[in-house]
Amino acid sequence: MQTIFNRIVAEKYTSPTQKVRVLSENWVQSQVYCPNCGNLSIDKYNNGRPVADFYCPTCGEDYELKSKKTAFGMKIVDGAYSTMIERLRASHNPNLFLLSYNWSTLEVLNLLVVPKHFFIPSIIEQRLPLSPTARRAGWTGCNIILERIPQSGRIHLIKNRFVEPKDVVLAGWQKTLFLRDEKDQKAKGWLIDIMGCIDKLLQHEFTLNDIYKFEPELRNKYPDNSHIKEKIRQQLQVLRDKGYLEFSGRGSYRLIA
Q1: Which of 6, 97, 165, 207 lies most in the core, judged by the most C-beta atoms within 10 Å?
Q2: pLDDT in tens, 157-183
Q3: 3-state secondary structure at position 101
């Protein structure tokens, strides 16, 4: 995988915004493989498609691309809030590529993909409506809160200029595909929240009591649930059954690499 944009494809453009769009889209189409099936290339949709930018001709996965010349923060500006929530409920949102680059060298610094099964309403933040004097008065956008997505939902193809091995990327994608089987958004949210709690422990092996420390946080998020510890145990069992965790006995668990 080459990590330098092909500057020739954007020579006829003068707007920096247009240049970046053409350069980044050309690079993705020519260099990036499908992280779902491993197909060597993905194709670009015609301009004007409202949601996705690319698709895999082999497995049919859709991808949206967001590019930035600085590192992505914990909030990613997206489109209309109502449209995003509607997409999540209908389960037709695309996977998300996040690409950061160095403008002076046209080098790709980072490329990560967030699989669409990690997109649930709780990671979407509603922004304030535009003021009455704005051209689109009342329009309400949204932010994607990246820090609410577990590390297993942020799969790097390139990290700090280093190209990750393809087999590692594909394995990381396959590891969480079981989330697509969960159609209930609240149930999926529980699993993703427990994954996030495990991330916060910063260790591959942990105990049930370690996860119980997040009981107050989960109680605030799910105030209607009066059996938080029982729910935690249930979700750990699901993650174990799906091959995300391994139970090592006596209330101890281990993340499966």
Answers
A1: 97
A2: 999 999 999 999 999 999 999 999 998
A3: strand
DSSP string, 158-195: EETTEEPPHHHHHHHHHHTGGGGG---HHHHHHHHHHH
Mutual angle of helices 185-201 and 228-241, in 10-degree steps: 90
The H or E element spanning position 18 is: helix 16-31
- Supply 109's token pair: 């610094």
Helices (H), 49-184: 81-90, 166-175
Angle, CA 210 vertex, CA 208 and CA 211 arms, to 5°: 70
**Chain centroid to CA 120:** 10
What is the spatial distance between Cα 181 and Cα 178, in angstroms, rounded to a whole number? Answer: 5
For the chain, give every domain's residue range: 182-257
> Most distant CA pair in the chain: distance in Å?
65
Q: CA-CA distance, 38 to 170, in Å (whole number)?
A: 7
Q: Which CATH number fits domain 182-257: 1.10.3470.10, 3.40.109.10, 1.20.1090.10, 1.10.10.10?
A: 1.10.10.10
Our CA angle for 237, 232, 243, nearest 5°, is 30
**Residue appearing with tokens 């280093």:** 162
Structure tokens at 37: 């099936």
For residue range 122-146, list pLDDT tens digits in order.
999 999 999 999 888 999 999 999 9
**Rounded to the nearest 10 degrees, how much is the dihedral formed by the CA atoms of 6, 75, 45, 105?**
0
Q: Distance between CA 74 and CA 95 in Å, rounded?
A: 18
